[in-house]
Amino acid sequence: MKARVHVMLKNGVLDPQGEAVRHALGAMGFDSVQGVRQGKVIELDLADDATEAQVKDMCDKLLANTVIESYSVEMG
Amino acid sequence: MHAAVVVFPGSNCDRDLAVAFEQAGARVSMVWHKDTKLPDGVDIVGVPGGFSFGDYLRCGAIAANSPICREIVSHTDKGGFAIGICNGFQVLTETGILPGALLRNAGLKYICKTVGLKVETSQSAFTNGYNAGDVIDIPIAHHDGNYFAEDDVISQLKSEDRIAFTYTDTPNGAKADIAGILSSNRRVLGMMPHPERSADAGHGGTDGVALFRALSGALSLA
To answer: Taking the domains of chain A in order of start, what are their residue ranges?
Structure first.
């Protein structure tokens, strides 16, 4: 089984990398871009009996820092 | 004073920190990240600067889950002293020993230069060698030193006089200009600037010496 974890900076936390990407896109002429947030995707290969609750536990303990980041988990 | 300096793969300020402790009169033990016990009689744990585990995932995140960090949490829970400098500050926030987190610098650049720090409180074993309001020159060298915490946490740090140092001209976007903070029992200090790099005339500055001397004075009497 696979799980895919999306980790993003929380709303309200300044994302300077996303801002830099937004500026670059604007400079390239992509005028429609109003905001960019950059995050990460972590893919896990799991044993078949692994549960979403276990993945969330991994997120809380290591994969995300919930002071600054939010996460979502896709199983399967 | 007996100091333990933790060494992670990728630490690069561990020996500098050990020398600064020794020059202040401490006995120093180096401790490996896989160690499961701190040496007996350790008064203070130093978590040094560097790039523990290559800054993979998040700065300090993997180090914070290493075996020695469980011991550091237990040490500080029992009222033991600790100082985390630069990557060490990131590690201490990742363990939850100190509140907040360190984000990428607002200007996205790695910054390596000497900056002015205002001593915000002299009420700690780390800062009582300075006067509140003193401005000292200490080097920074970081890419992720932009201190962040929710507004209620910042308010609490202020009301409890737990902001140890602020930048006179914030280089990294840190909230409330925060360069270093204390734990609620004032026995743990985390700071991005490097006092151990301003601890010998050969470094080009000695403003960090008072921090290590103050610690040594406080812990030798303890």
So the answer is: 2-75
Q: State pLDDT tens for residues B6-21.
A: 999 999 999 999 999 9
> A18 Cβ partners below 8 Å, 6+ apart?
A9, A35, A36, A37, A38
Segment B49-88, tens digit of pLDDT: 999 999 999 999 999 999 999 999 999 999 999 999 999 9
CATH number of A2-75: 3.30.1280.10
**Which residues are bridge partners to B111 per DSSP?**
B142
Q: Select the residue of A17, A63, A68 nearest B101 (Cβ to Cβ).
A: A68
Q: Which two tokens stand for residue B100?
A: 């907040």
Tokens 């896709």 — which residue? A74
Rounded to two decimals, the pTM is 0.95
Tens of pLDDT, residues B156-168: 999 999 999 999 9
Catalytic residue check, B86: yes
Candidates B86, B94, B142, B203; catalytic one: B86
Nearest residue in A to B64, CA atom: A62
Q: Which residue has the tokens 């050969």?
A: B202
CA dist B2 → A48, B6, B28, B106, B219 (Å): 49, 13, 6, 38, 9
Q: What is the pLDDT of residues B125-184, one digit of tens each?
A: 999 999 999 999 999 999 999 999 999 999 999 999 999 999 999 999 999 999 999 999
Assess whether B142 carries a catalytic annotation: no
The minimal CB distance from B101 to the residues A61, A62, A65 is found for A65
A·B CB contacts under 8 A: 39
Q: Do A13 and B103 touch (CB under 8 A)?
A: yes
